[in-house]
Write a structure and sequence with these properties.
240 residues; single chain; Rossmann fold; 5-stranded parallel beta sheet; alpha/beta; 3-stranded antiparallel beta sheet; globular; 8 strands; 2 domains
Length: 240
């Protein structure tokens, strides 16, 4: 018989169906103005199967809420960013948007000067993956990721959502904005390598933006060479 934690874990990893009979106590709270789902009565699970085999299937309302929460992570400035709304100003930018639009689930290392449109394309791809709802994804700035990894070191009870997803077998894509602004002195390099290596070994997706090239990351001692090698193996480099 599944515990509440089992069910929540299954939901988090994107399982569609779960056998068992215990769903009581699991409720998805919503504002009073938001109607309770008529299919699952707010539990998040719909009964499935027959008299001989009873199970519970995740309700479609759960995925809709997950998609909404992922899209809410997009900053207001880029809330409307899409591949269609990107305005290329030179041939290399035109090439970049064509490549990314043709492979929206691909791994990319976008580099270029300020104002070139890297972040627009970054959130345009994030929107594509988040709205599809098929792949779990997180978006982090360098500061946010640094703070999360630092907490992993300092608090043994803390479970990093990014690190947990990176080690999971379930499809995952990490969006990492401004990698060159990360301060590796704030935490051990081993923690960052563990994250990138887990993404690499599990064949997850990774999209990165930076003002520096991969070579510059090493020469300016921003990121350890072993991590840069993983980035080079995983991502296709695009000059914006």
């Amino acid at each position: 018989m599944e515990t509440t934690m089992d069910i929540l874990t299954a939901m988090d990893l994107g399982h569609q169906e779960l056998p068992g009979e215990r769903v009581e106590g699991i409720r998805f709270t919503s504002p009073a103005s938001e109607p309770v789902c008529a299919l699952c009565a707010g539990t998040g699970w719909r009964r499935a199967g027959n008299e001989e085999s009873i199970g519970y299937r995740r309700c479609t309302c759960v995925e809709a809420r997950w998609v909404a929460s992922r899209l809410a992570a997009i900053p207001a400035l880029f809330r409307e960013a899409s591949f269609e709304s990107y305005q290329a100003r030179n041939p290399q930018q035109e090439r970049a948007v064509v490549l990314m639009r043709g492979l929206p689930e691909g791994s990319w290392y976008m580099t270029g000067h300020y104002g070139s449109g890297k972040t627009h394309l970054f959130y345009a791809q994030y929107r594509e993956i988040a709205a599809a709802g098929k792949i779990r994804c997180h978006v982090r700035t360098a500061r946010e990721l640094g703070e999360e990894l630092k907490r992993v070191e300092l608090d043994r009870d803390f479970v990093s959502p990014v690190m947990a997803a990176a080690h999971s077998c379930a499809p995952y894509h990490l969006f990492w904005d401004d990698i060159d602004k990360l301060k590796p002195t704030d935490f051990k390099t081993e923690v960052l390598f563990e994250l990138v290596d887990a993404l690499y070994r599990q064949k997850h997706g990774l999209t990165v933006t930076a003002n520096y090239s991969l070579r510059d990351l090493v020469e300016r001692e921003r990121i350890h060479p072993s991590i840069v090698r993983r980035l080079d193996d995983m991502c296709r480099v695009i000059q914006i």
